[in-house]
Amino acid sequence: MKKLLLTIFLVSIGSQIFSQDDLLDVLDAETPKNNLENIVTSTFKGTRIINGHSIENRKNRELEFIISHRFGRVNLGFDELFGLDQSNIRFSLEYGLNDNLTAGFGRSSFEKTFDSFLKYSLIKQKTGEKSFPFAVSLFGSVAVKTLKDYDPSDKRTFAESMFYVSQVLIARKVSESFSFQITPTYIHRNTVKIEADPHDIFAVGFGSRIKLSKRVSFNGEYYYAFDESTSINAKNSLAFGVDIETGGHVFQLILSNAITMIEKSFIAETTGNFFGGDIHLGFNISRTF
What we know:
Elements: H1 2-30, E1 38-39, E2 63-73, E3 87-96, E4 101-108, E5 113-123, E6 126-127, E7 135-145, E8 162-173, E9 178-189, E10 200-211, E11 216-225, E12 237-246, E13 249-256, H2 263-266, E14 280-288
Antiparallel strand pairs: 1-6, 2-3, 2-14, 3-4, 4-5, 5-7, 7-8, 8-9, 9-10, 10-11, 11-12, 12-13, 13-14
C-alpha cells in the first residue's frame, strides 16, 4: 500500500513539473520580443564631459545644482600661487522637464555672463532587435554679456550683448569602459571686437570617457574651430579631467587651456596654449535633488 501511494505521489509531482514547463514555454512564445527596447544608459557619468555638454539629461523633475570653478594659468608661477590667486566661477541650475528635455540657467563671473539652455534627447542608442548604434541630442543656448567694458559713449544695447549656440551631440557607448561623442557646433555673436573677427563660427568637438573603476573615469575633450577671432589670437580648447562619483553628486577635476565654462566662450574665445603651459586647474561639482 505504501509503495502504491509513493508511486501515485511521484507521478503527480512529475505531471505538475511538466505542466509548468509547458506553461512557461507558452508564455515565452507569446512574449512580444520586438517590444523590448534595450536603451543604452550612462554613456557619460554626468551632464558635462568636461567643459562641454554630454548627451546625458536630468531625469523627469530632477534638479541639479552645479558649481564650476577655473583658476588662473599654472605657468604664472609662485607669485600668483600657480594660478590659485585668480579664479572664474559659474553657478547653474538644471531641471528635467521630462526624461528627454532639460532646461538650465547659469551665471559666470567671467564677463558677468548670464546663460540659459535647452537640451533634448532626440534618439537613444539601443541594443537588441531594434538596435541603433548611437544617441543624438540637440542643444541650444543663449548668453548675454553684462560686463561694462565699453566706452560710455558707445554703450552696447542688450541685443548687441547676446550670443547664440546650437549643437548636435552624437555619442556612442562602445563598451562599459569606453564612450565617445562628436559635437558639431554653430556659434553666432551679435558683436565682435573688430571687423576682422567673424560673427559666425563653426566648430566640431570630440569627447571621450574611459571608465577606470565603478566610480572613477578619465575624460578628454577637444574643440576645433574652423573660424577664429584674430583680435585675441584664439586657440582651440583642450581639456582633460577625472570624474569621481560620490553618492548623489559627481566631482570633476579638470586641466584645461580654457578659463571659461560656457560654449560661446571656451570654443570661440580661448587664448591659452595648453602645451605652452597655459593650463587652468579647475573642478565641477554637481548635486542632484
